[in-house]
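Support reply, case 0932

Customer input (verbatim):
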Amino acid sequence: MLKHFKTATMMLVVAMFILPATPVLAHLMLIETLEEGKVQVVYDDGTVARRAEVVVYNEQDEEISRGQVDTEGVFEYSPVEAAVIVADDGLGHRAQYVVEEDQHQAALPRGPTIALVLSGFGLIALVFHRRVRGKGS
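Our regenerated output:
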């Protein structure tokens, strides 16, 4: 009876960590260059980030421009001194763009990444389950 209680308790604890996180599929916020001095802030599904605030920094990390995007997610700035552009929507999404740097890095695929994380949690649960089961014998 005690053995089943321990197993059930362990499974409940693991479920408390895994189940709430499963339906949450956060999306990325991206800064896309439209033309020199003009960027658009969007989410990875193509939705415009209308609430984003954009800050432009120079090479010395000094703020040179700040403002809200327009209704199309577009922000215009003076490209003369711009080195880094940071966008924040106030909801936990933040994107950074380095001016003149190649931005073609691929994002990790969402499905395999989630499967890998859940497999890691399952492996940890299995290790603790075997340790608990070994002590009870």
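We compared this against your earlier run and they match. Two observations from our side: The longest strand covers residues 29-35. Residues 110-136 form the longest helix (27 residues). Please reopen the case if you see a mismatch on your end.
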